[in-house]
Amino acid sequence: MKSLFDRFAKYIIFLSVIFFVFPLITRAGFGLSPGNININNALRGSSFEKVFVISRSDPVGNLIVTVEPLGDTAEWFQFDRGNKFTYPEGEKQFPIKSVVTIPGGTPNGTYTGKIRFSGSMDTTGNTEGASVGITMGALADISVTVTDKEIKGFRLIGLQAEKAVEGEPLVLSLTLENTGNVDIQPSYIIAELFDKFYKLQLATFRVSKFNGSVKVASSGKVLATVPWTIPDAGNYWAEVSIFGDQNQLVAKEKLPFDAVAGTGLLAFVDKNSAIYFIMGGVIIFLIIIIVIFAILLINTRNKQTKELAEMTKHLMKLVKNKNGRK
Question: What is the count of structural domains for the chain?
Answer without folding.
Answer: 2
